[in-house]
Amino acid sequence: MKKLLVVGLMMSNFVFAQKAKDTLVVREFDGSTGPVRKQKPAPLSKKGQMFVFYGWNRAAYSNSDIHFSGNGYDFQLNNVTAQDRPTKFGIVYFDPSWFTVTQYNFRIGYFIKDNLALVLGIDHMKYVMDQNQTVNFKGHISDPEYAAMVQNGQVNLADEKFLTFEHTDGLNYENLGLEKYKNLIHKKNIDLVWSYGAGIGFMFPKSNVKLFGNERSDRFHVAGMGTDIRSSLNLVFWKNWMLRVEGKAGYINMWDIKTTLNNKPDKARQDFVFGQVLAGIGYTFNTKKYK
Fold first, then answer.
1. Cis, bond preceding 265 (omega within 30 deg of 0)
2. Could you tell me the end-to-end alpha-carbon distance of the chain, in angstroms, rounded to an integer?
3. Rounded distance, CA 105 to CA 108, Å?
4. Are 179 and 231 in contact, with CB atoms under 8 Å apart?
5. Are residues 42 and 87 in contact, defined by beta-carbon separation less than 8 angstroms?
6. Residue 121 burial (CB count, 10 A)
7. For residue 72, which phi and psi values (nearest 5 degrees)?
8. For 8-30, what is the mean pLDDT?
């Protein structure tokens, strides 16, 4: 939770360090006495603008210690490795009825100040524990069958009898962020805009866990919190359509992962660092009318 607090303070500084800028009004004098015209601003730059975005990601995770507790057991598996699980490219990436199968990202942003956007996002990542690994074990298990699988302080997970552990539908990070934007190239029909920012949110995974031969736990649940820093390049063409490439790094702490169908007391907890690269397409528009 200390890391979440640090990022919160960083975001506060990020907001209050901004210089106030008024929405651009260009006054043109053409000799007439008609009303002053407002010039249409560059995309991703002015208060009142919005954008929506949809894309896909690849993710990587640090090793983590996973602590399991429940009736008759309390133990920790140390230095567990895991990977994401990207879907093979095909029609599934474009068929709306299958959109949750892929590792997707959704964003909706609103510029609360010039060059500063408040962004609501969903990051649908997938986390799969590597099955073919032997990990260090610390703790106790009362069931002799599974206790016997621990040899010399280690347990081999390869045969799946001891544990399978995934967040594959998925490792859902529901987040709210602040992003600062800077226009790098401004041409007639092309803009290149760089952004950077930070976010914080809660974890809402659907964890697929099978522990000690119990029926698989497979349900959505608020399991913890996450935070991140991010940066993106946005290519805007014809003033509205945008292509985005974004890099992100963050920290996830889940202290209430459901491991069996028993609501209490079976659960797990883990924390880890993640990295993510995403790309996709979006649309930006003005909420104010310009002549």
1. yes
2. 49
3. 10
4. no
5. no
6. 21
7. 85, 5
8. 44
Among 183, 178, 216, residue whose Cα is nearest residue 199 = 178
- The amino acid sitting at 267 is K
- Give the CA distances from residue 168 to residues 51, 63, 104, 107, in Å, rounded to whole numbers and listed in that order: 28, 17, 12, 20
pLDDT-based confidence at residue 239 (cuts at 50, 70, 90): confident
Structure tokens at 42: 């560059």
**pLDDT score, position 243:** 96
- For 20, 138, 229, 246, 291, the CA distances from 243, given in Å and listed in that order, are 28, 48, 20, 10, 26
Output the CA angle 163-166-168, nearest 5 degrees.
155
- What does the pLDDT read at residue 66? 98
In the predicted structure, residue 22 carries a pLDDT above the cut 50: no
**The two structure tokens encoding residue 227:** 């935070």
Residue indicated by tokens 């226009």: 183
- The C-alpha angle with vertex 48 and arms to 198 and 239, in degrees rounded to 5, equals 90
